[in-house]
């Protein structure tokens, strides 16, 4: 009989095994990647196109496009599309990224043949009815009036501006006029120039056999659609901001939103990239991090505080974000800077680093558990042009990194004197 008073032994995670990815190219040059599992009853079908924010010529165009591409086709209204997808139990998600847009559909394999025609309509025959555009515009302008009262939302918008610059496509600061400035012609032109086989790829996972691939080829792989040959670049422009700080005073605010960070000129495969990734997790990247332990648990200034390291194709953005009690705004900022300085000058002890190592290894293992999670991993590797063994490289560095490496990489890349600050609320 198992003695349940004795915990199971902790085992190191040395490697992870990904399901082998396969690919095929259709006659119209549309590339398809697929993961196969005999046991899977679910299919996840994703379409990626180089149609992210860096490709828009008007602010909010890609966001509007993402919201409206399924709002009507030449044959079906938005209501009819929603009813068809609901009838077949399709969960769908249309999401923009800096360089790409993803249209993802998850449903039972047995419904594949019935679901494919409506997906084809969305990809090939989106109509962007003016009445749906008007509803979208009016709804978002009304929501804007609520959003500008939310300190966290306003801080995120302004922070994106001081990080990337006023003209950069990743600057999210906008006005109601930006919604009004988007026309149906803008959406149609973006659609016909960006949504085509040579400007993206298909990713499908599940029980994928020859019959599924043949249906896909018959639907999307025989001919070009939207008749454009141009393939858009995925390179994200470097930030060009000259602003350092933004302080927006809201005298009656109960909370203040804090955003602190900066641009770091490294990215994978730079030799310091994994070290900086691990150091960020220790500082503020998980619930047991230093920032959370001190500022939330010990001092009670906030419900949550996190640091992130967002990686682009030629730089990273290091950020710390929190909403705190208004009277603790300056104390929180001071504590953030103090915790960074301390980590730079005093390496973490073996126990603290060991906890972070186990957490990161466990996260990687969890994120590769099952075909749908591996679907997400493989799509990320393809989107960011990372090698197949990226996560095993990361695991190896997690095992090898030492406490001194954490302090060194923090000191090398995080200068507390030059971090940008965006504070919205009571300052």
Large-scale geometry: globular
**What name goes with the CATH superfamily of the largest domain?**
Metalloenzyme, LuxS/M16 peptidase-like
Structurally, the number of domains stands at: 2
Structural class: alpha+beta
Encode the helix/strand succession as letters. EEEHHEEHHHHHEHEEHHEEHHHHHE
> What gap, in angstroms, lies between the N and C termini?
61 Å
Please give the order of strands in the largest beta sheet.
Answer: 1-2-6-3-5-4
Task: State which percent range the strand residues make up.
Answer: 15-25%
What would you say the CATH architecture of the largest domain is?
2-Layer Sandwich
| Low-confidence regions | none
**CATH class assignment of the largest domain:** Alpha Beta
Q: What kind of sheet is the major sheet? A: 6 strands, mixed
- By DSSP (H or I, 4+ residues per run), the number of helices equals 15
User: Which fold name is given in CATH as the topology of the largest domain?
Assistant: Cytochrome Bc1 Complex, Chain A, domain 1
Helix content: 40-55%
Q: Give the C-alpha Rg.
A: 24 Å
Mean pLDDT: 95
Give the number of DSSP strands.
11
What is shown here, in short?
It contains 15 helices and eleven strands. The chain has 427 residues and is an alpha+beta fold. Helix 3 packs parallel to helix 8 (210-221), helix 11 (329-345) crosses helix 15 (403-413) and helix 12 (350-367) runs antiparallel to helix 14.
Description:
The protein is α+β, with helices and mostly antiparallel strands and 427 residues long. It folds into two domains: 22-221, 2-Layer Sandwich (Cytochrome Bc1 Complex, Chain A, domain 1), CATH 3.30.830; 245-425, Cytochrome Bc1 Complex, Chain A, domain 1 (2-Layer Sandwich), CATH 3.30.830.10. The protein has 15 helices and eleven strands. The chain has a six-stranded mixed beta sheet with strand order 1-2-6-3-5-4, sandwiched between helices. It has a five-stranded mixed beta sheet with strand order 7-11-8-10-9, with helices on both faces. Helix 11 packs across helix 15. The radius of gyration is 24 Å and the shape is globular. The model has no long low-confidence stretch (mean pLDDT 95).
């Amino acid at each position: 009989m198992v003695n349940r008073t004795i915990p199971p032994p902790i085992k190191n995670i040395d490697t992870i095994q990904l399901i082998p990815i396969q690919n095929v190219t259709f006659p119209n040059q549309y590339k398809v990647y697929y993961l196969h599992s005999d046991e899977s009853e679910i299919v996840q079908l994703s379409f990626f196109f180089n149609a992210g924010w860096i490709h828009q010529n008007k602010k909010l165009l890609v966001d509007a496009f993402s919201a409206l591409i399924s709002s009507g086709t030449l044959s079906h209204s938005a209501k009819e599309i929603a009813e068809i997808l609901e009838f077949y139990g399709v969960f769908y998600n249309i999401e923009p990224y800096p360089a790409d847009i993803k249209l993802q559909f998850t449903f039972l394999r047995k419904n594949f043949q019935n679901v494919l025609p409506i997906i084809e309509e969305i990809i090939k025959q989106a109509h962007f009815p003016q009445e749906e555009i008007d509803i979208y515009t009016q709804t978002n302008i009304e929501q804007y009036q609520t959003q500008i009262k939310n300190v966290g939302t306003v801080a995120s918008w302004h922070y994106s501006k001081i990080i990337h610059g006023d003209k950069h496509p990743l600057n999210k600061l906008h006005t109601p006029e930006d919604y009004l400035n988007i026309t149906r012609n803008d959406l149609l032109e973006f659609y016909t120039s960006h949504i085509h086989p040579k400007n993206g790829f298909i990713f499908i996972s599940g029980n994928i056999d020859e019959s599924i691939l043949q249906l896909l080829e018959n639907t999307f792989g025989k001919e070009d659609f939207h008749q454009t040959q141009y393939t858009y670049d995925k390179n994200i422009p470097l930030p060009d901001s000259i602003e350092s700080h933004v302080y927006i005073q809201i005298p009656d605010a109960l909370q203040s939103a804090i955003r602190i960070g900066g641009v770091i000129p490294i990215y994978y495969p730079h030799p310091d990239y994994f070290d900086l990734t691990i150091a960020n997790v220790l500082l503020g990247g998980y619930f047991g991090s230093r920032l959370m332990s001190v500022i939330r648990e010990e001092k009670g200034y906030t419900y949550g505080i996190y640091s992130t390291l967002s990686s682009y194709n030629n730089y990273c953005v290091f950020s710390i974000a929190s909403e705190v009690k208004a009277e603790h705004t300056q104390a929180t900022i001071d504590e953030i800077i103090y915790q960074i300085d301390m980590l730079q000058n005093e390496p973490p002890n073996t126990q603290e680093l060991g906890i972070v190592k186990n957490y990161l290894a466990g996260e990687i293992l969890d994120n590769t558990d099952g075909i749908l999670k591996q679907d997400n991993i493989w799509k990320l590797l393809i989107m960011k042009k990372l090698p197949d063994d990226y996560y095993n490289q990361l695991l190896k560095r997690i095992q090898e990194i030492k406490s001194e490496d954490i302090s060194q990489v923090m000191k090398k890349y995080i200068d507390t004197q030059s971090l940008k600050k965006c504070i919205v609320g009571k300052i």
